[in-house]
Amino acid sequence: MTNRAVEIPRGTCRLFGTIKALNTIKNTAIIVHGPKGCVYHINYILGLRGDRPSRVYSTSLDENDVIFGAEKKLINAIEELDDEYHPDLIIVLSCCASSIIGEDVDSAVRHAKSKAKVIGIESGGFEGDFRTGYSETLKKLVEELTLPSKTKKSLAVNLVGMLRGGPDLRELKRILSSIGVTVNAVLTADATLDQIQHVGAAALNIVLCEPSGKEAADILEKKFGIPYIIEDLPIGYSATVRFLEHVGHALGISLGAMDFKRNKEQTVVPIPYNSIAIISGPTRAIAMTQFLHELGINPRLVVIDFDSDLKSRLAEIVGPDCEILIEPEQEEIIEQLKEKSIDLIIGGMLERPIAAMVGIDYLDIMHGSQRTVGFEGADTLMDLLRSKRQKMK
């Protein structure tokens, strides 16, 4: 990446990552101790990404607060939310403004009178980016909230680094149930405080996003002796079989007699695109690349929005004709889309206007509205890829 004075950012701040990691925990109120714009814009982005309406509140710091401090205002906010909404959990976040002026979020947490469990998380935007927010938030939750477990569930797992609920989470639970495995807790999609407190009852942690979840899994292993495996998202038929086999092996389950495999002859059909680009985070980039490779298609361009030491692994899958870019400038992405004659972008929100600018098809499967994992997810993806071109004609 070149050392330039200006850029079009393709990533966001630590505060966004923290809120994203917390946003779907049930009966939880989030307070950002900062100006109202931080919360407005994050709620707006989350809404565009398809997330449900957030209970993210702001202390709406003004100029006077920034000059003289606003710890009392924060204490009042915690107590007001507790009295009015009765959440199980209140999480207080710093942001750039409150971090710069040295507001003591932990002091406000200690002094507030609340029936809810209250914790504070340092999340000033300049202190890291969104991936730091994911990882540090999951670490904080397992450090602060988890309790010793008197019992172990021999065939129960925790899904670590799964931050969005919806169709994919339901499908993961369904395919795991097909081999007799139950999900004890998810960190953090659709979790409850009680589930987070009792993650120690599981026999295995499955880390589905290594950058987000590995450090939390390390803590859980030390704290409760729970081993973990790091698995790709099971996108595609073969990937789903591998996922179930790996989980079964880790739990000592023999899958030899279980008929969960599919007849690939019925599912692998031609895709009406000649040159595909994948633009996403590393977890979905690997999973989608493997899925296309399973169909006999190698993407011509893979763009990863942050470096997680996956370039060599991707290169082994796609071969020499695919360009792999790590944290590129937007201008470089547009240049490569044209040079590679890309006719479909599989990406996220930022790629929609790029696709329109270059005049190529676009498919967003990154934001939870579609089922993409498991056997059912593979069927959905096949239908989307086939129907997308038909609709564009």
Major sheet: size, sense and barrel closure? 5 strands, parallel
Give the overall silhouette: globular
- In oligomeric terms, what are we looking at? single chain
Helical run tally: 16
The SS-based structural class is alpha/beta
Measured on Cα atoms, how large is the radius of gyration? Answer: 22 Å
The CATH homologous superfamily of the largest domain corresponds to Nitrogenase molybdenum iron protein domain
Give the class-level CATH name of the largest domain: Alpha Beta
According to DSSP, the number of beta strands is 13
Q: Your description of this structure?
A:
The protein is α/β, with parallel strands linked by helices and 393 residues long. It folds into three domains: 14-136, Nitrogenase molybdenum iron protein domain (Rossmann fold, 3-Layer(aba) Sandwich), CATH 3.40.50.1980; 153-251, Rossmann fold; 267-392, 3-Layer(aba) Sandwich (Rossmann fold), CATH 3.40.50.1980. It is 44% helix and 17% strand. It is built from 16 helices and 13 strands. The strands form three sheets. A five-stranded parallel sheet has the order 11-10-9-12-13, sandwiched between helices. The chain has a four-stranded parallel sheet with strand order 2-1-3-4, with helices on both faces. Strands 6-5-7-8 form a four-stranded parallel sheet, sandwiched between helices. Strand 7 (202-207), helix 10 and strand 8 form a beta-alpha-beta unit. The radius of gyration is 22 Å and the shape is globular.
